[in-house]
Amino acid sequence: MPTGDLVPGSDGQNVMLAGSWARDKLYYVDRYCNIFNAGMRSRWSTRAYVDLFSGPGRCAVEHGQEEFDGSPLVALKCRVPFTHFFLNDMNKAAVEALKKRAALFEPVHIAYYNEDCNRVVNRLVKDLPTNSLDFCLVDPTNWQISFESIRRLTEGRRMDLAVTFHVGAIKRCADDAPEELDDFFGDSLWRDEYVSALRTGRHEGSRVLLDAYETRLGALGYRETHDLVLVKGPRNVPLYYLMFASKHPRGKDFWDKISLRSASGQVRLL
Asked: E strands along the chain, which residues?
């Protein structure tokens, strides 16, 4: 069964099959949620966590073996908690399993949604607290989230972002890219940027795509960005990145601190 499928977990609820690299991603999400809340609780009494692809709350590698907490439970278990949670998944069975697992954390404020990631944004912009500091995880399986949805969700808000960026999959179809990728980048100009950079040899393909997306985030006010390789494929070619973006230098300071070491303990060079 491919990653993203649901299978029965050890607690009787569905878990999501995931690649082993998901644990590296969650390692950084966990560390950022904790430093975000600990560092900001004295300044922001309302802190919201948003998860557009929440899944059932638990993941498993190898068909139900090696279970581990997914992003919503990672966020719910912060030592200093968020005050509000907004959790969405398109799969109804995943949402139902998540509700049962998250019930252990009540009476914390949790709002659940069962919608396409782009449609749910219309509800989120109405439901999110008017004066909160937010952290949003965008963890699609490819490029389901449109840039217009990112713009609408973050407009006028103090919201840090962590985005799973599937650079390997994008590169594989970049020469004949589907229209959905134009929606993901927010325009079709990224195609010319990609072809031009490769033709001149100025940058490696992954860097061109990351720069294109980060530049567009910059136009939304996200001046502080950083990206980490999560998985490399054959010949050491990057397949997945975790991209972080903040509108405030403090956000990047936090990210730099939590990303100094990888999940394996290796020291990273910033």
From this structure: 6-8, 14-17, 47-51, 58-61, 65-69, 84-88, 109-113, 133-138, 158-165, 224-232, 238-246
Q: Alpha-carbon distance 205 to 207, whole Å?
A: 5
Domains and CATH numbers, the chain: 6-258 (3.40.50.150)
| Sequence letter at residue 119 | R
Judge whether 115 and 90 are in contact, CB under 8 Å: yes
pLDDT tens sequence across 130-175: 999 999 999 999 999 999 999 999 999 999 999 999 999 999 998 8
The secondary element (H helix, E strand) that includes residue 200 is: helix 189-200
pLDDT, one tens digit per residue, over 186-221 is 999 999 989 888 777 656 788 999 999 999 999 999
Residue 163 token pair: 């985005």
Report pLDDT for 186: 97
Q: Rounded to 5 degrees, what angle do the CA atoms 171, 174, 178 make?
A: 125
**3-class SS of residue 166:** coil
3-class DSSP assignment, residue 42: coil
Mean pLDDT of the 58-69 span: 83
